[in-house]
Specification:
The chain is of the alpha/beta class. Helices cover 26% and strands 24% of the residues. It has nine helices and 17 strands. The protein has helices at residues 25-30, 33-36, 38-46, 63-77, 96-104, 115-122, 126-137, 147-150, 195-204; strands spanning 7-11, 53-56, 82-85, 107-110, 141-145, 155-159, 172-175, 183-186, 209-213, 217-222, 226-231, 235-239, 245-246, 259-260, 263-267, 272-274, 279-281. The protein has a nine-stranded mixed beta sheet, sandwiched between helices. It has a four-stranded mixed beta sheet with strand order 8-9-12-15, with helices on one face. Helix 5 (96-104) packs parallel to helix 7 (126-137). It is globular, with a radius of gyration of 19 Å.
Length: 296
Amino acid sequence: MQIPKGKLIAIGGAEDKGAEAETGELHKNNLNFFELGILRRIVEEAGGIKKRIEVITTASMIPHQVGENYLNAFGKIGCVNVNLMHIRTREDLQQPEYLQRLKSCDCIMFSGGNQMRLTATLGGTAFMKTLQERYWEEDFIVAGTSAGAMAMSSTMIYEGNAFRAHLKGEVRLTAGLRLIDNIIIDSHFEKRGRFVRLAQAIAGNPACIGVGLGEDTGMIITGGNKMEAIGSGLIVIIDGHEVIHTNIADIPEGNPMSIENLHVHFCARGNGYFIDERKFVEKMGKETTPVMTNIV
């Protein structure tokens, strides 16, 4: 089996970009991971502040505002070669400029927004084929936040009300960008109460591992198998390989599902998980979760 040479960095959303600290709960618990964390780790994995990073804002409805936020954030780290791709339509991808920029950069960063907009625009294009080839054949970084993270996998959640996710048919799946086959990613996981949403997705696709990403939290996926948790929050792993019973295939739509023997793991910073072996690892990263001393 071919092993990808590149890395995926999937972020749950609301990654700290070094803005002024907010008051309240976020300020107490965030630990200012701009200094410790995710964007800095992306730059490190890409090879340093001089490497070329292209931010793709396709998923966003406010691409220029989102793009400027990323330019400012990467600028605070000291990056000197960050550019924006405001790709809005499939017709835009006919411009040779975008393909050339993709071929010459070291890292692609997908912004948040609407994952269906991202896959409908990029799917099946020469641009996406080139991105997939670079990820599989080169030391190339593909990062994405929120919708940009959810779209990485072959099977993608595109819709699902968290309050009705226990009912069959309320969680909608479609094809993603096909960078990794054996996981399904969900974002904003804790704040938007998406545990049952991802559980339903896994009940119907038990060959996959569910990865629920909290905000300002991410997973670095190496070789399509090894995952390392980064950031300030929590990652929930849902494993359906040993499910004994589920009624998801037999009940009519709109009825509540049942699942027996679903395995769940919580990963904090520095923890990890091997997808193929379905194994939790306590110390995967160079650093483990710091003690939070600033919580009142």
